[in-house]
Amino acid sequence: MTSKHEIRIGIIGVGMIGVEHIRGFKVIPRCSVMGIADPDESRLKKVSAEHAVPLSFLDYRELLKREEIDAVVICSPPFAHEEIAVAAFQAGKHVLVEKPMAITPASARRILRYQKRAGKLLGSCSCRFRFSPTVAKAKEIIDAGDLGDIYHISISGISRRHRPGIDYHSGARWNLDKAKAGGGALMDWGIYDLNTLFHLFPKLTVSKVDGFCFRGLDEPVLADKEVFNVEEHGAAMLRCSNGLMVMWERAWAAHMNRQPRIRIYGSRAGLAFDPMAWSREVYFEIYEDRSGKPVTIAPDTSFDPWNVHISMAHDFIDAIFKNRPPITTGEEELKFIDVIHALYRSNQKKAAVSV
Ligand SMILES: NC(=O)c1ccc[n+]([C@@H]2O[C@H](COP(=O)([O-])OP(=O)(O)OC[C@H]3O[C@@H](n4cnc5c(N)ncnc54)[C@H](O)[C@@H]3O)[C@@H](O)[C@H]2O)c1
After folding, report:
1. FRET pair for 255, CA 20 to 30 Å: which of 1, 45, 51, 179?
2. What is the CATH number of the domain that holds 97?
């Protein structure tokens, strides 16, 4: 338990998601947004004025020097996460880091080493959709054993055109560069899939990955020095330690229709649901037999997507007050990054690889 009355947050990187974090942490009780940092001066000034944040710095290291700051949320592009997280732990701050926590497993491990030394909390924002009511409902049904023996899981997140830097968020071309983003659709959105999978099935371990990556839809016009070397689409069969096979695919862009995202097949019943809707209407169906006849049940799982974001901020603040791990820890995030990197290796070898 901390004896503090209020946790004072610093947001590092105030681009698209950094601003959402400012809005989110502002409405959480016993918490305030005390400072922001961003090397982009005009953005820093604009965000500071619009959101009336007391402290603002071009260099995040100046923010970390301030004793008023208890914890930071790292919202820079992924290539800078390690440097900032390490500096934050050295300065004695708790850290919530945007996904992916790091661009490689080695980088994630270095962050974990500094966290252990500092004895501070480390949470990852890849937990976002654990707070979706569809995921909560699915967990309730799975944990109650209502599906019988679960023998197959399929996760499919396909967009027609949703490439950051091309189809939206045009200012964030860093998403297309592996050195800056760590990867494409898999590191950007696939990490949410893995977080949800391991949340629903915490005992699962992935032993082998056999997958592919693809990039090759219409090419954007790139400026000098810009690159586009990350996957638009990736998919794999994940062989899990209990014999379960998970079929997983994630695409920023593909010539394909949108399908229900997660399907869980059990001997007694099945489930199909979408964990990530940004609207109030969200897909959730249960399939079972009643009196020998197949029936489909669609419980009400409508929700306000904003609550999902707020719940994540709430969890982090509560974790600090109670000195408990955040809902997704750095160790768990490393597990997700390990699986994605195994898929990248499998794509290079054109064969199944061990995780
Ligand atoms: N955009 C989204 O909808 C979204 C959603 C969820 C998570 N994320 C994740 O959040 C992170 C940021 O994404 P974004 O879309 O907000 O990017 P963005 O490009 O909109 O903003 C990034 C900001 O970080 C700043 N920055 C760059 N280097 C920095 C450094 N060394 N120190 C401090 N600030 C630095 C940039 O100037 C910019 O203002 C990424 O990890 C991304 O995967 C983004």
Report:
1. 179
2. 3.40.50.720
